[in-house]
Write a structure and sequence with these properties.
CATH topology of the largest domain: Rossmann fold
Number of domains: 2
Radius of gyration: 20 Å
Number of helices: 11
Distance between the termini: 35 Å
Helix content: 40-55%
Strand content: 5-15%
Order of helices and strands: HHEHEHEHEHHHHHH
Strand order of the largest sheet: 2-1-3-4
Structural class: alpha/beta
CATH architecture of the largest domain: 3-Layer(aba) Sandwich
Shape: elongated
Largest sheet: 4 strands, parallel
């Protein structure tokens, strides 16, 4: 849920918090925050406000750092209780959350997002997460986009900002644009996250797409045939 939808200009925090409680279950309520030491009204007032509305009784709240989710993966442990993550933003904490989900270290996870334009929302949409505000998920990505995202994901080890990785990203974006697909970061990144892509490389893809929509002509070496989309479409049809 995006904070704007949760608050609705100060009119909806109580009913929206009730929706969240219904979904996450009974107390205690576990809140993962950027920095427990700054979890106060002076430093991270927005975090505190959200926690107080979601869990009105202080005794029901357990607050810990997002980075602690990383220890669950390392120690092969699972939190059966729902975890509420408040306003994550930095790449390092987003990667910690992503790896925890990938490792099934959390039974249920609710994320309160600061802005609808934050990359974490695109990640959640790519995984088909339920948005509690409208009560629905974004439709899954086009199978053809998922196939392209898998090809890009396979280049992660080389990096995507230069070399073969950049060549793959730019050429696939151009090829799909020629087929009428929109050149926008959101749809492509949803597919990339759906196949297991990381926030580190997603930021590079986002940068490249935005540069291309702004008119930048990237010089790249050919990686695929001119009819790569047609070839991929045929491969998908053969698998059905």
């Amino acid at each position: 849920m995006v904070r704007e939808d949760w608050g609705q200009h100060g009119t909806a925090m109580i009913p929206q918090s009730a929706v969240i409680r219904d979904w996450i279950g009974d107390p205690p309520y576990l809140f993962a925050v950027t920095d427990v030491k700054k979890f106060n009204h002076d430093d991270r007032g927005a975090d505190v406000e959200a926690a107080e509305f979601i869990a009105p009784e202080k005794a029901d709240r357990i607050v810990f750092n997002i980075r602690e989710l990383g220890s669950l993966e390392r120690e092969d442990e699972v939190i059966d209780h729902a975890v509420v993550v408040l306003h994550p933003y930095e790449q390092r904490e987003l990667e910690t959350i992503r790896r925890a989900v990938e490792a099934d270290s959390t039974g249920r996870l609710f994320v309160l997002i600061w802005s609808r334009y934050d990359l974490v929302r695109t990640w959640l949409d790519g995984l088909g997460a339920l948005n509690l505000h409208p009560g629905e998920s974004v439709p899954l990505s086009d199978p053809l986009l998922l196939a392209a995202a898998e090809m890009i994901h396979n280049e992660d080890y080389t990096g995507l900002s230069s070399g073969r990785g950049k060549d793959a990203v730019v050429q696939l974006i151009r090829a799909f644009a020629a087929e009428g697909y929109p050149v926008d970061p959101d749809s492509g990144l949803r597919a990339y996250f759906a196949v297991g892509g990381s926030f580190h490389h997603a930021e590079t893809i986002e940068k490249l797409v935005k540069e291309m929509t702004a008119g930048t002509r990237h010089r790249v070496k050919p990686r695929y045939r001119d009819n790569i989309v047609e070839i991929m479409r045929g491969q998908l049809a053969a698998k059905q």
